[in-house]
């Protein structure tokens, strides 16, 4: 029984480490921050435009976030949209709350760009 508990703790620790590593990059943190505060699914091209970043880099960042189980993707025709994965643990809840608490002043430009793009999508 002790071995199973030990393995469980190691697996949980690995999950935490993956999340912290994924969020240790400024661009990935901005992507998660946007998904958290915009509360909308977004596609790669929208993230590229909002962050003024190359498509290759955004795709690489999204892959890392997906491997950390922070985001998931949903296909819709020729488009793939990304959104936050549902929160399934107290740890993830606390991480999400910490991200929500980050100051919006540093992200005003990105927020406005994202809202503008999302508004165009509806038209």
UniProtKB/TrEMBL annotation:
InterPro entries: ArsR-like_HTH, HTH_ArsR_DNA-bd_dom, HTH_MetalResp_TranReg, WH-like_DNA-bd_sf, WH_DNA-bd_sf
Any matching Pfam family: HTH_5
NCBIfam families: HTH_metalloreg
Entries under CDD domains matching the protein: HTH_ARSR (cd00090)
The protein's name: Metalloregulator ArsR/SmtB family transcription factor
HTH arsR-type domain boundaries: 8-106
Superkingdom of origin organism: Bacteria
Keyword vocabulary terms for this entry: DNA-binding, Transcription, Transcription regulation
Species classification: Bacteria, Pseudomonadati, Bacteroidota, Sphingobacteriia, Sphingobacteriales
